[in-house]
Design brief:
Elements (H helix, E strand, L loop, with lengths): L1 E3 L2 E3 L2 E3 L6 E5 L6 E6 L3 H17 L7 H17 L1 H12 L3 H24 L3 E5 L4 E8 L2 E5 L5 H14 L3 E6 L4 H14 L6 E5 L2 H9 L5 E5 L2 H14 L2 E5 L5 E4 L5 H11 L13 E5 L3 H14 L18 H17 L2 E6 L13 E6 L6 H4 L6 E7 L2 H9 L7 E4 L3 H9 L7 E2 L17 E2 L4 H6 L2 E8 L5
Parallel strand pairs: 1-5, 8-9, 8-11, 9-10, 11-12, 13-14, 13-18, 14-17, 16-17, 18-19
Antiparallel strand pairs: 2-3, 4-5, 6-7, 7-21, 12-20, 15-16
Length: 481
């Protein structure tokens, strides 16, 4: 049992405005594993006021970039040293399988290192010369950042926002999901040890209503959000009304195109991770598998065999590949989509809406594969956020690209082929922010984000860092050149 009865506000553990603690329940068996204070609007006011004062009057925005880099390196080292504990907390809270939470720890290091490299080479101040004038171009911090993250991958989402925001000299109020109160409380402890100045960062678990209060706050200068497209639209409306800077990383319904020359066994082994990572509760999951009609049943059978081979169960078990859904309502949502797919006329290849036998005590669903899916079906168009795959046939390459692009989303995708150069040509035709070829890993130096309803702006590397700066041009008169 872990208890956080205080909130991390402005660098100090502070009594919350409400003494009530939220029970944090295990998705595996619904037992209470911890209790934590939750922020209310009064707590948001304190955090934002401290962040405002720290930005307007404190040292952090005026600290040399090299010094800010050193602090972030210290924070990253503290996180690396606690990797096993972090992985365990996320598995306990989210139901994410241990293989996933452990495998994600080196990825957090690569993500942080890419931001640090970008900061070291960033043109914080540059001079532009012309025959008539000299201009000094400065990249300055925006101000107070509201970073709002979802529950499904809390450390990755948090670090993707707070690292570039802090490197750029901003102050931050990080709003986390109630489900992640334990792991994010642990993150707050790491931040405390990293030695940031007073007021620079707060870490607050809170519900949706309090989150909206934060992003609407008049002293917030930028909103950085990861979450559902529906919530992103609401945040974009708030930001637009108040002309706040905003970046949004939203939902996805990504397609994996298996080209006719692909090694089907290799492709399906890759889809094990690309399509079913984190129990399928991932915005980048490639849940639409596009297969050529000439090899359609071969692909369907291979996907079926893969899914049926995966162990579903206790996320702490090292042999478990798919754990429970994070909450009971999410479990029901996924089961409802499976029932919808059956009603829509898709062929149920494996799985179904029934809870796996022996796992009725938790938020489990049966991994499911549908075949003979038309891309217009809701199970092919809507983000399910669970271990449900649809296999869609295509006639030729143009048809595959058309189907892949026929989505309101555009976050991720994949192409599988024996000819890498040809796969790259197909990838270039996809209207999506990230495409992997033959299961290649995400490169954190490159930008990550979405087209269309999958978001606005980008994260990671130099492009991600640039989302947290304002550009100022100071032009000197010709006589002073």
């Amino acid at each position: 049992m872990i208890t956080y009865d205080r909130l991390f506000i402005a660098g100090t553990w502070t009594a919350p405005s409400s003494p009530d603690l939220l029970d944090i329940r295990s998705p595996h068996d619904r037992a209470v594993i911890g209790r934590a204070a939750q922020a209310r609007p009064a707590d948001i006011d304190r955090a934002v006021a401290a962040a405002r004062a720290a930005f307007d009057e404190g040292p952090w925005p005026r600290t040399a970039p090299a010094e800010r880099i050193a602090v972030i390196r210290r924070l990253n080292a503290l996180r690396e040293a606690a990797a096993e504990q972090i992985a365990g907390l996320i598995s306990a809270e989210n139901g994410s399988a241990a293989w996933f939470t452990r495998a994600g720890q080196p990825g957090l290091t690569r993500q942080a290192d890419a931001y640090l490299r970008a900061a070291e080479g960033f043109g914080w101040e540059e001079t532009l010369e012309s025959a008539a004038a000299r201009s000094v171009v400065r990249r300055e911090p925006i101000g107070v950042v509201a970073a709002v993250i979802p529950w499904n991958s809390p450390f990755s989402s948090a670090m993707a926002k707070i690292i570039p925001a802090l490197l750029a000299g901003n102050t931050v109020v990080l709003k986390v999901s109630p489900e992640n109160s334990l792991s994010m409380g642990f993150l707050a402890g790491l931040v405390e040890r990293a030695g940031l100045p007073e007021g620079v960062i707060s870490v607050l678990p809170a519900d949706r209503e309090t989150s909206e209060y934060l992003v609407s706050h008049r002293d917030i200068d930028k909103i950085a959000f990861t979450g559902s497209t529906r919530a992103g639209r609401r945040i974009a409306a708030i930001a637009g009304e108040r002309l706040k800077r905003v970046s949004l990383e939203l939902g996805g319904k990504s397609a994996a195109i298996v080209l006719p020359d692909a090694d089907v066994d290799q492709a399906v082994r890759g889809l094990k991770f690309a399509s079913l990572l984190n129990n399928g509760e991932s915005c980048i999951a490639q849940t639409r598998v596009l297969a050529p009609r000439t090899r359609y049943e071969e692909v369907v059978t291979a996907v079926k065999d893969l899914v049926e081979s995966l162990k579903v169960g206790d996320p702490r078990d090292p042999d478990t590949f798919i754990g429970p859904m994070v909450r009971r309502d999410q479990q029901q949502r996924v089961r409802d989509y499976i029932e919808l797919g059956i009603k829509e006329g898709a062929r149920l290849v494996t799985g179904g809406p029934e809870v796996p036998q022996g796992l009725e005590h938790g938020n489990y669903v049966t991994p499911t594969v549908f075949a003979d899916v038309d891309n217009s079906m809701r199970i092919a168009q809507e983000e399910i956020f669970g271990p449900v795959l649809v296999v869609i046939p295509y006639d030729d390459e143009d048809d595959a690209v058309r189907i892949a692009n026929d989505s309101e989303y555009g976050l991720s995708g994949g192409v599988w082929s024996a000819d890498e150069a040809h796969a790259l040509e197909v990838a270039r035709r996809l209207r999506t922010g990230t495409v992997t070829v033959n299961g290649a890993p995400i490169a954190f130096d490159g930008p990550f984000g979405g087209y269309k309803a999958s978001g606005v702006g980008r994260e990671y590397g130099a492009v991600g860092l640039a989302q947290y700066v304002e550009y100022k041009t100071v032009t000197l008169a010709a006589s002073s050149v």
